[in-house]
Amino acid sequence: MGDDFSRGSSETTLPKTLAAFGKPDFRKVLDEELGEIAGDFPLEDLMDEGGWPDTDSLDISVSDVSDDPDSIIVTVQAFFTEMTRHSGCADLEDQAQPYKGNFTVTISKEEGTATIEVDDHEQIPDDEDDEDDDPDIYVDGETD
After folding, report:
1. pLDDT tens across 65-103, in order?
2. Is residue 135 part of a domain?
3. CB 27 within 8 A of CB 64
4. Residue 53 three-state SS
5. Which residues pair with 79 in a beta bridge?
């Protein structure tokens, strides 16, 4: 999980999701509408390297749905890439770092407004840097 970051939030509306709540096609409508508002997720609050979120890489999936008398609570995972540019050095290419962010989307049953809040995030290790698939095991300061 990333160390210091501001727990961001944003607000939007999910009228189709609210209308479908309790109906057989609710999950399908929820998935579609979350895809439509993907740009409303506060991904910029998760950038550890000072870059920007590559929204073309964004993949959102619903982990859990629950409700209480006033709200529908949706737990969402977002997989995306942070892009960084090395200024001042033409020889260096833009860098990409994959992330997983966890969000809670709270939908008001009365108004249909939705608050998207950041729960946490973590960088996804880049497997391309590993020459083998076996992790190094350290015992008394030496690797095996």
Report:
1. 999 999 999 999 999 888 887 666 665 566 788 889 999
2. no
3. no
4. strand
5. 59, 100
Which domain covers residue 110, as residue numbers? Answer: 9-126
Q: Which amino acid does the sequence have at 60?
A: I
Distances (CA, A) of 65 to 37, 61, 68, 131: 18, 11, 11, 40
* 130, 105 Cβ separation under 8 angstroms: no
- Pick the closest to residue 15 from 27, 28, 33, 41 (CA basis): 33
Sign of the C-alpha dihedral computed for residues 120, 37, 18 and 21 taken in this order: negative
Number of domains in the chain: 1
CA 137 to chain centroid: 31
Q: Enter the tokens of residue 58.
A: 């964004």
Measured between alpha carbons, how far is 133 from 7 in angstroms, rounded to an integer?
34
| Beta-sheet strands, E only, within the chain | 9-13, 52-67, 71-84, 95-108, 113-123, 138-139, 142-143
